[in-house]
Amino acid sequence: MSDETKPVRVRFAPSPTGKLHVGGARTAIFNWAFARANHGTFILRIDDTDPTRSTEENTQIILRAMRWLGLDWDEGPEVGGDYGPYKQTERLGIYRQAAQRLWDEGHAYPCFCTPEQLAADKKAAQDRHDPFQGYQRRCRHLSCEEAQRRIDAGEPYVLRIKVPEDRGDVVIHDAVHGDVTFDAKELDDFVIFRSDGTPTYNFATVVDDAMMGITHVIRGDDHLSNTPRQVMVYEALGAPVPMFAHISMILGADGKKLSKRHGATSVEEYRDAGYLPDAFVNYLALLGWSPDGETTIVPRDVLAKTFSIERVSKNPATFDPAKLDWINAAYLDAVGDAEFTDKVMVPELVRAGLVGSGDDRPREWLLTLASVVRPRTKHLGDVAGICSMVFGTADTLEYDEKAVKKGLAKEGMKLILVAASSKLVAIPDDGWTADAIDAALDPLPDELDAKKRVVFQAIRAAVCGNLVSPPLGVVLELVGKSDALARITRAETMAK
Ligand code: GLU
User: Fold this and answer.
1) Which pLDDT does position 49 carry in this prediction?
2) Torsion angle (degrees, nearest 10) of CA 409, 413, 414, 416
3) Is residue 376 in a domain?
């Protein structure tokens, strides 16, 4: 059992065999939040012992994603710490020493069985309907002398852990799943070191977790079945077993495990699609955890204060892109026009090539634009599309098909545009504001004896080239008087 009084030390231990995915990010967030809520230490460790699938490039992608998510780690790559190195490939000597110790103390033994021998043993077990079809412990009872003789003769061997004969049930006290019982008889004398001199995951992880003083292991429940084996390693090492918390899978809307089929799965893709990291962290934190079952906006600092494993659900969580969008929009909405302008809108406009990097529009103009763009933005990626029509000029404006068909190419539209022009021309240049524009256009429907919707649809189509833009008065103000009039003149040629 874990010692509740020890300072909390948790780790996130991704394998750099791919990018950081939504599930991994959620595990990282839970570990980070648990550490922060308990004034503990959050460790990042790179589990790169699978040399065929781990790459340095993936490690860098993971570190970047962690930084983007704002999950600062107290020990790990780039920041160091007292228990390093924090990459498993740099710890091979440590694993070797630990394995040697288990061997010397009789908790591990060399096994010389060839793959053919293992396959034959398995087949025989199947044929005799033996409920146990794992390793038949053939080399467990070799004498030290014989083992040494075969090693000296250059025979390849692996190291296996010696699961105690009388171990009985292994009960995992899981903070999420409760007590989970495994029968030790079902546990193989599993391999802890391969014949190529590399440690297996179940061994390296426990050596690290034990040496790094990890008090709580919070990870995906795909690792629950590894846990009894890992407990065997803790016991062989004589190290305290940490508290485990295996968190549920994340499912797609169809109830299947979240995967590429459901859309974006890597953190990078969400960053590039324009989600705010704070919103993304908030959303992922709610996949399997909730402060009270209702609250959906949980800012990072609140998460860092209130997170508790007791409120983690053992049921699978469903990834709901609509909820993520809703939360993202709520965060965008909460930032205020000035912050939205600087942090979101201008960078997006620069990215889309609509303004120069030194933002070449007056500050006031940008703030006015932000006031109408912000409430309409669900993702950063929406920004350019929402406001592209205020950039450019009457000559470059593109009219979409719907705007032409519904707003312009109908009988009587030209008349409306001509009347609108004469109202707008009358506004003094220095009084060209959204309020003045709205006031000037307001009497038009009555004067023309036309429906309000029809009148404003025509003007909107003429000035914006679409029918869905932000409020008309503001758009006209932002476009400027002479270009607004030029746009209407151009549209008159398309109107009936
Ligand atoms: N490296 C493992 C993985 O990426 C995690 C191991 C663990 O948390 O124990 O799945």
Assistant:
1) 86
2) -160
3) yes
Per-residue confidence at 2, pLDDT binned at 50, 70, 90?
Answer: very low
CATH number of residue 367's parent domain? 1.10.8
Span from the CA of 223 to the centroid of ligand 1 (angstroms) = 8
Average pLDDT over residues 458-483: 94
Gap from CA of 241 to ligand 1 centroid (Å): 17
Tell whether 113 and 144 lie within a shared domain.
Answer: yes
39-60, pLDDT tens digit by residue? 999 999 999 988 788 999 999 9
Range of the domain at 302: 260-331
Please say if 256 is a catalytic residue.
no
Backbone angles phi, psi at 9, to 5 degrees: -135, 120
Six-digit token string for 221: 């429940």
Q: Quick one: tokens of 8?
A: 């909390």
Pocket test for ligand 1, best of 32, 91, 201, 227 (most atoms within 8 A of CB): 201
pLDDT in tens, 333-389: 888 899 889 888 988 898 888 988 766 789 999 999 999 999 888 778 889 989 889
Are 67 and 213 in a shared domain?
A: yes
Of the listed 260, 305, 343, 481, which one is catalytic? Answer: 260
Structurally, the chain folds into a number of domains equal to 5
Residue whose token pair is 């030194």: 358
In a domain? residue 237? yes
Task: Note whether 41 and 11 are within 8 A (CB).
Answer: no
Together in a domain, 425 and 460: yes
- Ligand 1 atom 6 nearest Cα: 13
Strand, helix or coil at 240? coil
327 lies in the same domain as 362: no
Task: Examine the domain organization and report whether 69 and 214 are in the same domain.
Answer: yes
In the reported structure, the alpha carbon of residue 46 is separated from the centroid of ligand 1 by a whole-number distance in angstroms of: 9
Cβ contact 377:344 at 8 Å = yes
